[in-house]
Design a protein that fits this description.
The complex is a heterodimer of chains A (about 120) and B (about 110). Chain A has about 120 residues and is mainly beta. Chain A is about 0% helix and about 50% strand. Chain A is globular. Chain A starts with a strand and ends with a strand. In chain B, strands 2, 4, 5, 9, 10 and 11 form a six-stranded mixed beta sheet that branches. In chain B, strands 1-3-8-7-6 form a five-stranded antiparallel beta sheet, with no helix packed on it. Classes of the chains: A mainly beta (about 120), B mainly beta (about 110).
Chain lengths: ~120, ~110
């Protein structure tokens, strides 16, 4: 079955370190998204991609970067981790599909703690 | 700009109906969605409604849309303990163009036996 996976599921790191969170989908979806979830803020969009070599900034992109070298993967990098980036991170994907409502499929999330 | 708001918490007894409310500010929204998040998991699409509809029913779920007041609600009939989760409403302006969603803060539904 097609799926979207994230790794690691839990990560503890120190302030200033570079961290990369992986996202892999097997639906062959063109569109991929990274969100962070914080209490009281719901989900906020960090970066998104509409296809290979395409990346775009979302609402809260400062301190994060992404790259899209293939259809399946959109890794999220925290260049220099800060305590304010402690959060739960979700990756999602959607297809340019016959489904007009264009559902987004979410991964299980990565809980990141920056000490 | 876009802003989607929800109340934080709702508690109901098993078997009662639950009504989760959402308000949004962008009148150009074309699709509105309800996603469910169970503990420790990602979000799953529950249902959606197109902006030219007033109501949509899907088994125990009823979605009501009041475009004039920019108000969306999700009613869950005969609420079960398995319905305990966080419910997010979301909107999009253009689902075909990559489906950027704006989410509300989520409503935590607690169902008491």
């Amino acid at each position: 079955d097609a799926e979207i996976t994230q790794s690691p599921r839990h990560k503890i790191t120190e302030t200033g370190r570079q961290v990369t969170l992986a996202c892999h989908q097997t639906w062959n979806h063109n569109n991929m998204f990274w969100y962070r979830q914080d209490l009281g803020h719901g989900l906020r969009l960090i970066h998104y991609s509409y296809g290979v070599q395409d990346t775009n900034k979302g609402e809260v992109s400062d301190g994060y970067s992404v790259s899209r070298s293939n259809t399946e993967d959109l890794p999220l990098t925290l260049e220099s981790a800060a305590s304010s980036q402690t959060s739960v991170y979700f990756c999602a994907s959607s297809g340019v599909a016959a489904l007009s409502y264009n559902e987004q499929f979410f991964g299980p999330g990565t809980r990141l703690t920056v000490l | 700009g876009e802003d989607v708001e929800q109340s934080l918490f709702l508690s109901v007894r098993e078997g009662d109906s639950s009504v989760i409310n959402c308000t949004y500010t962008d009148s150009s929204s074309t699709y509105l969605y309800w996603y469910k998040q169970e503990p420790g998991a990602g979000l799953q699409l529950l249902t959606y409604i197109f902006s030219n509809m007033d109501m949509k029913q899907d088994q125990r779920l009823t979605v009501l849309l009041n475009k004039k007041d920019k108000h969306l609600s999700l009613r869950i009939a005969d609420t079960q303990t398995g319905d305990s989760a966080i419910y997010f409403c979301a909107e999009t302006l253009c689902p075909r163009a990559g489906n950027m969603l704006t989410f509300g803060g989520g409503t935590r539904l607690m169902v008491k036996p």
